[in-house]
Amino acid sequence: MQGGLAINLMHFARALRAAGLPVGPGKLLQAVETVEAVGIGNRADFYWALHAVFVNRRDQREVFDQAFHVFWRNPDILKRMMGLMLPTIRTESPDTQDPMSRRVADALRGTAPEAEGPEKSEIEVDAAFTVSAQERLQEKDFEKMSAAEMAEAKRMLARIALPVAEVTTRRHRPDPRGPRVDPRATLRRMLRSGSDLADLARRSRRTRPPPLVVLCDISGSMTRYSRMLLHFMHAVSNDRDRVHSFVFGTRLTNITRHLRHKDVDVALDAVSAAVADWSGGTRIGTALHAFNRTWARRVLGQGAVVLLITDGLDRDAGEGLATEAERLHKSCRRLVWLNPLLRWEGFAPKSSGIRALLPHVDDFRPVHNLNSLAGLADALNRDGPRRAESLRKWLKEAA
């Protein structure tokens, strides 16, 4: 292979890595070998050859596609890349630009060398009353994050703990001040001491966090959020026991076993290989029916708490959804619905799927940034009453 093309492939691999794809030296060598075998005479063959090497998961396709077309769009880009200059990308304001394009633009722009010029004088700024970058990141919508911000947010997600208020179980534990007398332990004490005087042993109920079940929507309308929420589910699965994770689009898939890998990249690769309906339609009623029929009795014991993560936009217009949601609600301790659409002030339950779900949930919360996930942790730690007061206004609007 000519040196110029190899150098360009190296810079393209660096751009993909900066945009969030797991690209290392091994994949770069595979790309060089693949391009040598396929050639560059046909653009489509060149595209799919690199796609086969660099893309491992469904959620990486959009990043690769946009990076490829931006990087290789100019016929003279090979010559310009010889000078280590990447194409300049026109970017709109961060709030109006497509988030995926922004991450690709940041990745491509980040590898270009800075223009030489006169040294800038150092300016000291008093930042005593400014908001830290970490605080801004906690309030920023997942959909508007750049590649660097998403990487930092994923690191912060790995540190999020999700405490759930402990519930009383049927089992007992020794407790000197317990309300109940333990007859067996009392008899054992009397036999050991050889005394006829009863030194009463007492016991109390054990407490334990209830099981946690997560049902996450991975349809096309949830694509920008499902990536980050999978990282959140992985962190929760590795932080506590008895966590059961499911994803659904047009069908339900159990990914509990895959998320138990300590390495998040290995876990998400396993999830990607197991799930066949990424970024497709949404059939919430069908997915809940499959869960209630196959998995409810296995994972909803001992007062499980269920997190339902979806925007409520159902392809089947809510057919059968109310019945399945009611059955799920009656089978668990609490049913918490997390909806990214709730971040909008003008949100109203107009969709048939949303109207079918609302009467059967205990809490209705937004999930669009790090602060919303932290608020979820606080809400679960407070074992509030079923059918929270805050839902009444939504139930009235849905009626």
TrEMBL record:
Top-level taxonomy: Bacteria, Pseudomonadati, Pseudomonadota, Alphaproteobacteria, Rhodospirillales
Species this protein is from: Azospirillum argentinense
Coiled-coil stretches: none
CDD domains cross-referenced by the UniProt entry: vWFA
Domain of life of the native organism: Bacteria
Protein name: VWA domain-containing protein
Signal sequence region: none
SUPFAM superfamilies reported in the protein's UniProt record: vWA-like
Chain ranges of the VWFA domain: 209-366
